[in-house]
Amino acid sequence: MTDTETTLRRMFDEIINEGRLDVADELFAEDYVDHGPMGDIAGREAFKQLVAQWRAAVPDVHCEIDTVIVDGDRCAWLVRTTGTHTGDGLGFPATHKRFETVSANIGLFRDGRAVEHWAEQGMFPMLMQLGVLPAPTATPTPAPA
Hints:
This protein is of the alpha+beta class. The protein has a single domain (about 5-130), classed as Nuclear Transport Factor 2, Chain: A, CATH 3.10.450.50. It contains four helices and six strands; from the N terminus they run ααββαββββα. The protein has helices spanning about 5-15, 25, 45-55, 125-130, and strands at about 30-35, 40, 60-70, 75-85, 100-110, 115-120. A six-stranded mixed sheet has the order 2-1-6-5-4-3. The protein is globular. It starts with a helix and ends in a 16-residue tail after the last helix.
């Protein structure tokens, strides 16, 4: 396992899964930027606030890292996220529903710390599973004549 993969796994195990936000001071650059579906989150402190908000809304959130690919300072991985939405911290009332998503991620690391992150974070499937967004309906395609 590379140093980058070890850092990546600690980010999810200790910060997201265990809620140890202080570990972000060690693993994230101060000028960290997260490019996600809700826009850019700039700064390590803003990231810690986002995690706290998530954990308040989904206290049993659990992320499992899979398929890690490291190439120099860049890293790509899949993350499987599960949880139960029991808090109001996501901007809508608690649904008390469980969700499970998979998202593809790309990160940039410098000197053993996360600097930048890009992902769609499984947001749309999660919102559909929680009933906040309607599931798309398939329109039948006419058979060729």
